[in-house]
Amino acid sequence: xxxxxxxxxxxxxxxxxxxxxxxxxxxxxxxxxxxxxxxxxxxxxxxxxxxxxxxxxxxxxxxxxxxxxxxxxxxxxxxxxxxxxxxxxxxxxxxxxxxxxxxxxxxxxxxxxxxxxxxxxxxxxxxxxxxxxxxxxxxxxxxxxxxxxxxxxxxxxxxxxxxxxxxxxxxxxxxxxxxxxxxxxxxxxxxxxxxxxxxxxxxxxxxxxxxxxxxxxxxxxxxxxxxxxxxxxxxxxxxxxxxxxxxxxxxxxxxxxxxxxxxxxxxxxxxxxxxxxxxxxxxxxxxxxxxxxxxxxxxxxxxxxxxxxxxxxxxxxxxxxxxxxxxxxxxxxxxxxxxxxxxxxxxxxxxxxxxxxxxxxxxxxxxxxxxxxxxxxxxxxxxxxxxxxxxxxxxxxxxxxxxxxxxxxxxxxxxxxxxxxxxxxxxxxxxxxxxxxxxxxx
Length: 442
Ligand code: GLU
Hints:
Blueprint: E1 4-7, H1 17-32, E2 36-41, H2 51-64, E3 70-73, H3 78-90, E4 94-97, H4 101-113, H5 129-137, E5 143-146, E6 152-157, E7 161-166, E8 174-176, H6 184-194, E9 199-203, H7 207-219, E10 226-230, E11 233-234, H8 250-255, H9 260-269, H10 282-288, E12 299-300, H11 304-315, H12 319-328, H13 334-341, H14 350-359, H15 369-377, H16 388-400, H17 404-416, H18 424-431, H19 433-440
Parallel strand pairs: 1-2, 2-3, 9-10, 11-12
Antiparallel strand pairs: 4-5, 5-8, 6-7
Residues 8-10, 42, 184, 188, 202, 206 line the site of glutamic acid (GLU).
């Protein structure tokens, strides 16, 4: 059966490179086996969810090359949740509670003082009908908790291997708030059943949820999908990434001019058994994914690596893949120019700077006037090609006796205004004889 997976962000901010790790793992697992990739917006928190973030997530995924097969919003699916939670109530797995936040805080403080774990004591289960009616008469509306089975829940985790959580160590989770709104814990399960999700791949911050949700799957009579919890991307100092800070958001990386595959390669390969390197396409990346070989340690990464990967990726990128974007940047010179400069750029837009060097004007060359005049005298006639540079510098060497740095550096400075840059054998024909002569003469 082809896998059906989902990426389920809450649209409460721009997604970052850590969120994309989850999306990519799901996408890769689905796509290499002809499965389906669902984008599900977990937007039941209406106070924090925003449409613009939802749209931005879709755009960010599209920029990275991930087009969902199905898009659903939890806010559109309330009747489904009403029906499923009614089923849980009928089965007495969902029970009404009337405690206020303050009461719960007080109880937790007491438990703590007695050295007990702060687990909900299920006091609400003991309420008589009369007590419930009294609360209702006071104007209190119940929130609803799921009655856990208090057992050892086990699953074969795709990343972590055999996993288990004893749900007797957990509070019965609230699934429905007093205002009738639903919590992610239950809506997620209802959707996963409804959409036929076969595999849930998500961050290891959800391991405890998994035990609870397996109980909910079973209470609803749904097939329990496979689970895999991957390690989370962190900075070198071990700090997690946050949607709120906007740091390393996909949006900002795109605006800074990084290539989508540099971002995806870093997001996916860090903290796995694969060397972190630029991979050309998502399809190739998908072939490298092996959930069982993802490390259990946090996937630490240095944001500076994005630049390194980006540069390495561009150095290998054929002209045809960037021709349109170069044209949009106003960069000419065709394939010859791209071949000449691609190993000297970090971001594609850097090509523009080298194109300006080709087209001029450039400042420089004033220093060694006599040397440059001699060099001009032996400049080969057109037509020029890749061999012209060495023919010319051989002639300059013979004429002036200069060699090594003393030969090349004044020429480079005169022609480019810089003392570093792409190989001149590629640039020389692009600059052209007339301009080269003009630059040699200052
Ligand atoms: N909305 C949840 C999150 O972003 C989804 C977790 C899940 O995949 O079930 O963490």
